[in-house]
């Protein structure tokens, strides 16, 4: 991976360049952080011409390391006003990496109303007209692009939500079967893509295979060892069997399942939407309870949820969606949740942000809690970008402002994921302090050995998690591989060194990860963020969660401020590179 | 003025107390700044229980000094998230001062849905039920309160907009005739009042006269001198003859009249909405071209605009409204603008914020520019708080977010007043750097001897103006008296010293004013503001104003940062007090 593709939508120029020295051996989330801090005006209008949209695979992207093909999409978030890295599965990252791209950077805004597709192949890249695709849902878009450009191409695209620059819009990536349901959902990056008049990336790596490891013998040894660990891990087996939905019963038991616009953490209908029920329903209906989103994944947390006739409803149906569009709305019918999920996917919407906005709409009296048909209608309004749709499709914070609802589950303007932060305070600390806003993927404490509704140890845990996660995001590894590699940093290092020919020790990887966070915080600071932005909304700190022993979020401000002390950058990136061969 | 009235809406307690030492000789804007910094959690939810709403007359309030009866209403603004002082005319300030109140502070939130009126008389204060008033427009509210509590009472009240906690809601104060059209319009303080379940203050000063000067002989001499200056000032005569509307031709000539959502600064229909046309129309129709909003005002900038049958349409019709709801919407009919003004007044809406939101709505395609009936219908929707009404009634910024309009004329979330900042850069500097957001009253350069669309000297002028204005806001003086007193600081000091028995020199008044700004900035900083918040929106710095020689707003960031260097507080308040007798 030694090329950067720069596409300027203002001049319509498409240029392949050598990466600057400072970007060497940075990829995924680390590349986004360094690039944004270096090249993008932090105070820019996120939907204006100074923002960029970056697609970058991780350092291990395109290799034979299992689950290493994640794609990082980044830019300045129109929801948070800060930096965003939104991480997705599927095959986009793999193919970009195989084509040799460290990053694809989309800059500028088109001067007229023309809309574009960016086609990237082994022989180069070009902008094509998006006529005929613009206006289509993501399923139709991907299907037609694969029809027009070949079954094997990977697609990253937006739906009508992104086209309409709605702030809940995400970017859909295709999976192994070409289905565009692997979402880089968070932070409103679909709106950024829409602002740039870019409907889709079409990536064709025909003729290219996996990127061979620099040290084949060492690679062979360590990959076998890693495979063995994955196959015998009970954590991984749980992901395979139940997917992320296994969490429903777990969070519900501790009062941490967002319910009724995050007003409580236990849902009377939890049993009907649990991972166990989901698996059973899929098995009875002959869907797929296990499914891999990218080739070479042994975790297979995904699933294919089907209707009573066995016809695909949506794939995958995941915990975040089940909670945000289920318990959070007091909807206890998996088929309805699947329908909502499908609609969001097709319109190109983040299900977390959309579910949170619907919860706010229900709290604001726009429709009653539990109104299944109403919820579907509202999502359809978002798809059509009616005024009601625009109110909800711009996310929970804006919906709350318009509807006069003060109890809005957001941090830095972005909706919380499906961990109620009074009941699960470690994740609450992450929500508060992550440069990303309320992302669970930035450092989730749900599997930590903590008393979740006590404030003890939460900040320390979150800090460690937040400083570890970027290692995976920088490498392009699925976070779930942490279930094995977290306990085996030596395996992780051997994988990296065998593939890249580096001589990293774990501290080097940690240093890059910490630098990633520091760069992100540097960008946010330049954008105007202060420690005031590193807090949860007032009501979470004052109104008890009745399902979690009436806990409030009471992690003290000083502890939150110390999660990311603004240190000098860790052992500099240059030092890390110097240790590479 | 030696009493503070504290009303706690959570406990329904009403307590009169001695002011703490640190509040001594602070009133108006200075009191708000010091109180907010000292007692209110800067990060609080503006519509939540930790915010306060303060009513405070100036230090000269209730005296016989001309135009000294302004009322300062303050709190944390739900629009800007920072401190707000919103200054209004009428008789509320005068009566509060005569009753001996330095400030009335409303704290907390009611525990149930009960709504209240706060009645304040010479014998005490009490909370009464607002039943029968809640839901009424401000005209009916004031009329009925005067019917029920006596013709002479003063009223501060909100309309349906404030009740619905819409962020464009202001607070209406009654004038000499009991008409509630003297607005503390800006910053959404009507929503704060609504959040507290408080419909109105009813202030009865029966039996009390003007506050006598401490040094009657000196007062007699200086007040005569001041009267003479007022009567012979051509600036004042211009205000008397044309009101603020005299500015239409002036700003239009230099390309600074906000037109078509601030996209340009010259309006083809300017002549039809000018001060001259306004005066002529009023004279022909036998309205009142001159009108005083408070007793003892010699400036009389107000007017009573009537229809063709001579029936009152609205009083006053002012420049800001004419520009924001006229040229900004490409509406060139004074009768329509008067109707929009009346509706806003009655619903309890800031005409600046509402006009800016309508401009954004037109830019976003919700209705066409120039659509008079559409504009009226939209304001009616705000009054009814329909979904469309909520989108617009929460101000220009929110409307822009919902409708996907990036060109929104706001700073710190609050709409710009009627001075296009690329054409009138001094006021642009004030918009950018005032702790208040885009208020013209914080330091307007329109009458400065500057080339308005050049960046030279603008920051220095704005700084001086911003550091002078609080002198007037602290004393309760109408800003227009600066037209005379600005050139005669010795008269100002003599007035103050004769009335209060102090021995202030002008530097003392300047010190209090600078402290006021520093306290405000201290609050805003604690609320999370940085210099990033002291900037105009991106498009004003990049897109030329074709009517102002294609100027962009190009005052450099360092100059903006230096307008309010975060100095140690000036000569401390205590020092100033020590010089008082």
Automatic annotation (TrEMBL), chains A, B:
Q: Which cofactor does it need?
A: [4Fe-4S] cluster; tungstopterin
Q: Name one GO molecular function term.
A: 4 iron, 4 sulfur cluster binding
List the keywords (alphabetical).
Answer: 4Fe-4S, Iron, Iron-sulfur, Metal-binding, Oxidoreductase
Q: Which domain of life is it from?
A: Bacteria
Recorded hits in Pfam families, A to Z, give: AFOR_C (PF01314), AFOR_N (PF02730)
Zinc-finger is among the record's keywords: no
In this protein, which residues make up the domain named Aldehyde ferredoxin oxidoreductase N-terminal? Answer: 1-207
Entry-linked InterPro entries: Ald_Fedxn_OxRdtase_dom2, Ald_Fedxn_OxRdtase_dom3, Ald_Fedxn_OxRdtase_N, Ald_Fedxn_OxRdtase_N_sf, OxRdtase_Ald_Fedxn_C, Tungsten_al_ferr_oxy-like_C, W-dependent_AOR
Q: Which family does it belong to?
A: Belongs to the AOR/FOR family.
Q: Which protein is depicted?
A: Aldehyde:ferredoxin oxidoreductase
Species: Desulfosporosinus lacus DSM 15449
């Amino acid at each position: 991976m030694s090329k950067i593709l720069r596409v300027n939508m203002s001049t319509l120029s498409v240029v392949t360049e050598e990466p600057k020295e400072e970007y060497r051996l940075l990829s995924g989330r680390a590349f986004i952080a360094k690039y944004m801090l270096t090249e993008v005006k932090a105070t820019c209008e996120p939907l204006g011409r100074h923002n960029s949209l970056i697609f970058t695979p991780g350092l291990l992207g395109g290799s034979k390391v299992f689950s290493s093909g994640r794609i990082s999409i980044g830019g300045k978030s129109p929801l948070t006003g800060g930096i965003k890295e939104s991480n997705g599965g599927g095959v986009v990252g793999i193919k970009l990496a195989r084509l040799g791209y460290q990053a694809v950077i989309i800059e500028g805004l088109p001067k007229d109303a023309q809309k574009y597709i960016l086609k990237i192949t082994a022989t180069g890249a070009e902008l094509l007209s998006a006529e005929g695709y613009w206006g289509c849902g993501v399923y139709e878009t991907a299907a037609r692009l694969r029809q027009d450009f070949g079954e094997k191409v990977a697609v990253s695209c937006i739906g009508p939500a992104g086209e309409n620059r709605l702030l809940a819009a995400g970017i859909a990536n295709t999976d192994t079967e070409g289905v565009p349901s692997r979402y880089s959902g968070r932070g409103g990056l679909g709106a950024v893509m829409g602002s740039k008049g870019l409907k889709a990336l079409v990536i064709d790596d025909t003729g290219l295979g996996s990127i061979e490891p620099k040290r084949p013998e060492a690679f062979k040894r360590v990959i076998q060892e890693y495979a063995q660990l994955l196959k015998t891990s009970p954590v991984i087996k749980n992901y395979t069997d139940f997917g992320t939905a296994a969490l429903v019963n777990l969070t519900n038991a501790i009062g941490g399942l967002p319910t009724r616009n995050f007003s409580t953490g236990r849902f009377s209908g939890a049993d009907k939407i649990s991972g166990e029920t989901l698996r059973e329903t899929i098995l009875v209906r002959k869907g797929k309870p296990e499914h891999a989103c990218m080739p070479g994944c042994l975790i297979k947390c995904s699933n294919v949820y089907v209707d009573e006739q066995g016809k695909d409803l949506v794939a995958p149906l995941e915990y975040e969606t089940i909670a945000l569009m289920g318990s959070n709305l007091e909807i206890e019918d998996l088929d309805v949740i699947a329908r909502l999920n499908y609609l969001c996917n097709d319109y190109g919407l983040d299900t977390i942000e959309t579910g949170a906005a619907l919860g706010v709409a229900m709290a604001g009296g726009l429709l009653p809690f539990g109104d299944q048909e109403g919820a579907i209608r509202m999502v359809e309004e978002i798809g059509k970008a009616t005024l009601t749709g625009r109110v909800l499709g711009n996310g929970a914070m804006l919906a709350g402002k318009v509807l006069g609802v003060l109890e809005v589950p957001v941090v830095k303007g972005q909706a919380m994921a499906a961990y109620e932060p009074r009941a699960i305070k470690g994740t609450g600390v992450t929500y508060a302090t992550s440069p990303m806003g309320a992302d669970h993927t930035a450092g989730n404490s749900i599997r930590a050995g903590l008393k979740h509704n006590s404030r003890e140890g939460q900040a320390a845990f979150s800090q460690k998690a937040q400083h570890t996660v970027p290692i995976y995001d920088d490498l392009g590894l699925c976070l779930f591989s942490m279930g094995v590699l977290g306990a085996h940093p030596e395996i992780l290092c051997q994988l990296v060194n065998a593939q890249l020919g580096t001589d990293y020790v774990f501290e080097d990887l940690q240093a890059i990860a910490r630098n990633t966070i520091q760069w992100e915080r540097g960008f946010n600071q330049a954008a105007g963020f202060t420690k005031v932005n590193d807090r949860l909304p007032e009501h979470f700190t004052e109104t008890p969660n009745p399902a979690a022993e009436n806990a409030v979020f009471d992690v003290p401000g000083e502890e939150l401020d110390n999660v990311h002390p603004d240190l000098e950058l860790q052992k500099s990136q240059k030092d890390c590179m110097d240790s590479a061969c």
